[in-house]
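Reposting from the mailing list since nobody answered there.

I have sequence plus structure tokens for a pair of proteins and want to know whether others read the tokens the same way I do. The first protein:
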Amino acid sequence: MKILNLLFAIVLTGQVLVAQNQSPIPRISQQLTDYFAAYPKEKVYVSTDKTLYKPGETIWIRAFVTDGSNQPLPKDNRGLFVKLCDSKGAVKVQELFKVSDSSAPGDITLPDDLAKGIYFLCAYTPDAISSEEMGVSVINVDPLYKNQWIAETTLKDSISISGQKNEVQAVLRDISGEIQKNSSLHYQLMNGSDVIEKGKLKTDSKGKLVISFALPAKTNGEPFVCQLSDNREEWQNELFLPSDLDPIQIRLFPEGGMLIPGTVAKVGFTAFNKWGIPVDVEGTIQNQEGTIIEPVKTITKGLGFFSIDNANGQRYKLVLPGKSQKDLTFDLPVPNPNGMALSVAKTDAQFISSLLTFADKQKHSIALTVIQGSNLSWAADMEINGTGRIKIPAENIPQGINQLSVFTKEGILLAERIFYIDKKQELKIDIQPEKNSLNAGESMKVKVRLTNENNLPLPANISVSIFDQFRGCVVNPTINENLMIGAELETPFSLISGAFKGKITNSMLMDIYLISNNVKGFNWAKILAFQPEKTEQVKREMDQFLNKNFDAQITGYIADYATKYKLLYKDHVPEANYFANNEDLFQKIPKQVNRSNISLENQRRMLSSGTGIMEVIKTLKPYHLVNNQIVFIGSENSLNYQSGALIVLDGQMMGTDISAISGISPLEVDHINVSTNAMDIQRYTGLNSVGLIEIFQKQAKSKTPDAINDVTNKYDGKYRIPNQFPAIPNNSKRDIRTTLLWIPAQVVDASGQFELTVTAGKVLTNFIIEIQGGTDNGRFGSGQAQFSVVK
């Protein structure tokens, strides 16, 4: 970090101090340097060639790594862990790639038997000390069977009121879009693992059905979900049922961090349910006597604000009316008679205009700093005579998220405020395909031009993906949204970015969002208390602890992170002609062997009541024990050398000895599958012919998976060498690629121009050309264009 000289601030009421020997700024700057030297701040953005994959496909990856101020990291070789996690946080595949020039290309091959669902691609360096420093990209894995069903579900009311009737309306189609008439469906209303109601219905001649339901008066704290399934439970659809019983979490953020008596203050707030989904709320601000001061409601889902006049040191609360329960109340912070209020009135490319007000109206010596990441970009000492209006020159303050902090002359933090500088500094990516459409096997040139905001050419390092539009069903943040905002702040920008219509500006909404937020991993108390000479040994011990426990952190983080995506995600039917034009992309659902002779519901009831795992297995298929192994009746193959059934726990082979499961509580188990079918057994091994027991826990435990035995993967020591994207398909006569081109790291020179060639395959659809990347000075950008492949 560079230590800056004090820069000039325009002070309308107050003056800049001359006696710099009284300044706390040199110490603050040194503490920043020491702290982030020991705990360097990094950001990782991970992109993929598309977001919808079939089991067995390859995910092509590019990760960008920057420091806390969005500058490229030093150009040395280092590792980047890349892990594919399921929605419970369990690691399915992992690799270690090498980072060079602040980026890492890579690839991961999905297991052929990977279950349908939402997965999370996580990337982080060995220096990461928190799971929040990971780059995370959401992907969908779906085998896309031609006869699988898709239920288009809607709720009659957006919020279900407990004890009152509500309806789920559904239209059942197959993936081609064909209506499924007179088809039987099972439904269950679930509260976590508790079954509230269940039944069987049939669609009408238009593929429609209606489920009437009433939620109970109480919840067990888990989400309400409506599950739909076919008779054989081969297909399942889940619909989240928002209700008035959903726990609401409100966080209140006075601007600058505190309220003081006699001053009007802005207060931002966030409103999420327990599972991280932003919600609309409406209520009132009331004083300590219960008098209503003003009405309040969110201005966009998850975000709101109000102004409060803290006259006479009154205490206030936000009250949300309950529908089937008592009002919810959230207390505002008590006004501090010895505090200071900090507000930012205006932010533009020239100045940051702020107002400082001391509650006691007395003269105070203070220091101000502006920080981005770990870098101090501006600082000044001054005296404030009760109130000071300050204009901070923006010239040397970098674009993006910055933090203005105010300290006493002793270096004690008084207030802090996040603001955003938009200097209109862009990496603009213009993509010009040679044609609007191609025939199968036809090629064309695509010209790419990179410029700044003044249309002058820029050199940059970019990635290129050309993929089937249907395979972009999950929308992840762009590189500029992620690195400039999303990786910086605790409240995710992705959850409210839709209100900005893709454009980040210094609007009122952006200002409220920043008031209602904190910078990830930035804590002045820890920074100012840091003592390098006393903490080096502690840091080494902590690093060892974190390295041992980081997998557990990832498991918990992803499990929480995943919930909102699982609850909100819906399957979708392709566009009208997509299925008809590309039937080769879809296969029929393979016949399933019914491995359990009792229903999952009965299993779960037995397990939740404490019935032992061995007893539950026996109800599924009778057995006797031989040499501490389970031998199913009728499967004996030798009296002297009898082998037992293979035990698999959450996808991991545990052998045949029952001691592998002796420490597992039945309360931790969700369900068990038992099979003696050879095809089922061979999914795990070809050495066992007598049976398979698959045990699935409610919370899958993170475990480093066995290395994938893939002869195409090569290693340089501990680092995986990335495979090359195949420029030519293996079978040109049956070219059904849904990713036509992947270039993970294309260096564009000072001309800002680059040309690529794309060749169409036999998949008839719209293809997206997506390019994103960054420059050496921290400008990021993304761009898209499209063309069609036709008959």
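The second protein, same order (residues first, tokens after):
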Amino acid sequence: MKIIRNIVPGIKLRRALSELKPCKKKIYEAREKGNKEEERTYIVQCATQWCKRVIQDFDIQIDLKGKENIPDTGPVVFAGNHQGFGDIVLCLYAFDKFQTGFLAKDNLARLPFYGKWIKDIRSVFIEREDARASLKAINEGIELIEEGYSLVVFPEGTRSKNEIMAEFKRGSLRLATKPGVPIIPFTINNSYKIFEERGIVTKGVKVGFIIHPMILTEGLSREEIKALDQKVEDIIRGGLK
């Protein structure tokens, strides 16, 4: 029954890919030329058009707070809790000032229709069960950040599928501390109700999205870096209902 009830939402998500076509060719052309700034501009255009289409199709009601905490230029690392698949849409909607890719689980690369697109917006796929592969992915992410691209990371490592936030896995914030870029914590409330709560895509869900003040990482001492994971986790957890 759940499969049947997800057919129409699945068709809508497939159709939403049409929003990516106008900019996708331009992304590839800019990448071929090595023009990273132009590429980032086209990624923002594509992602913004797509996420607004999905939000409209599923009538997602977003209470967005703290957008003034996003700087005018990147790169930055966004770090937040992860309740459901809808978080990708919400992040692209909230962080539309500049390009944002994701540090994503490797199984998303095999997602029908969307797997390649997630890679195209400069995301990095991570195999968390393999320590060596995870380290390689983190280093790949650091290289992207040093080239001017921004990343979203979910330090829990997986979807909570409810309102309870798991403890953070250590190490992912190295994405920010190694190149010395700011971390912007964010908290998502109720996004699991879009799909995970019932196992079907649900329209009209009200979600909360809080963007917290950024944390500078350049020049931090070794002890400050060591305490950073807990500091960011506490800030994000504090935004939960």
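Reply #1 (J.P.):
I read it the same way you do. The chain has a mean pLDDT of 89.
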